[in-house]
Fold this sequence. Notes:
The structure holds two protein chains of two kinds.
Chain A: E1 5-8, E2 15-20, E3 26-28, E4 34-44, E5 50-56, E6 62-63, E7 70-72, E8 78-86, H1 87-92, E9 95-101, E10 112-119
Antiparallel strand pairs in A: 2-4, 3-4, 4-8, 5-6, 5-7, 5-9, 9-10
Chain B: H1 2-17, E1 33-39, E2 42-47, E3 50-52, E4 63-68, E5 74-79, E6 94-105, H2 112-116, E7 118-120, E8 123-128, E9 132-144, E10 153-156, E11 159-165
Antiparallel strand pairs in B: 1-4, 2-3, 3-9, 4-9, 5-8, 5-11, 6-9, 7-8
Amino acid sequence: xxxxxxxxxxxxxxxxxxxxxxxxxxxxxxxxxxxxxxxxxxxxxxxxxxxxxxxxxxxxxxxxxxxxxxxxxxxxxxxxxxxxxxxxxxxxxxxxxxxxxxxxxxxxxxxxxxxxxxxxxxxxx
Amino acid sequence: xxxxxxxxxxxxxxxxxxxxxxxxxxxxxxxxxxxxxxxxxxxxxxxxxxxxxxxxxxxxxxxxxxxxxxxxxxxxxxxxxxxxxxxxxxxxxxxxxxxxxxxxxxxxxxxxxxxxxxxxxxxxxxxxxxxxxxxxxxxxxxxxxxxxxxxxxxxxxxxxxxxxxx
Lengths: 125, 166
């Protein structure tokens, strides 16, 4: 009985996730009433290929961001991530986060969901 | 004498031809946070109705490492599991317990993190007030029903490690 029940929380070796800058700024984009936050994502998690980009207000309510919020990124790749925001969202947004996505079926892989959030200061007041 | 003068002259010529080239390596230091899975964690099965990461129960306590370049810019938010992401069909209640604590630090001042931590539900928050590396250990255990044996099969759960800018 015991030999059949083994729960794996983590399985792989050292792996990391980084999302910068810590305090990004909202800039205008080439489209009217659409704003942009330039982020950079570094993936050192071998078993993770997808990250979700999320935006939240100061109360941690989720906000809608433009384009595809799922980013595909290879192991050891650094990717510039432009996060597009509508006018109303740009006014409210405080946190921009990246969260690792675990593929269904990877039951024997590392199951640490890592999430790093940057903060837009003096916004969402 | 002539040879000596020729030698000195040729050395002077070589010296004038030699040029130094400075190669610059640029870099910037900015506040940032990196989350790393340091030690794999495994549940032991000390009794038919219990799964535990404790070493005395045959498990391995997972370790997550946080690196921050600058202090006071981030907080760590770690959630120990409160459900299985994958398991056989379970018809009884699973009772989850767990804790998160500082395992190792790169700066002795970080030892205050454990006393200053904030705990609620299955979440523990640590203020990362000092630049450097902190390793956090996550204890987790699950008990099935009232001493009901877990069905045989594979079980997985997820630890959520977050780093939030302040």
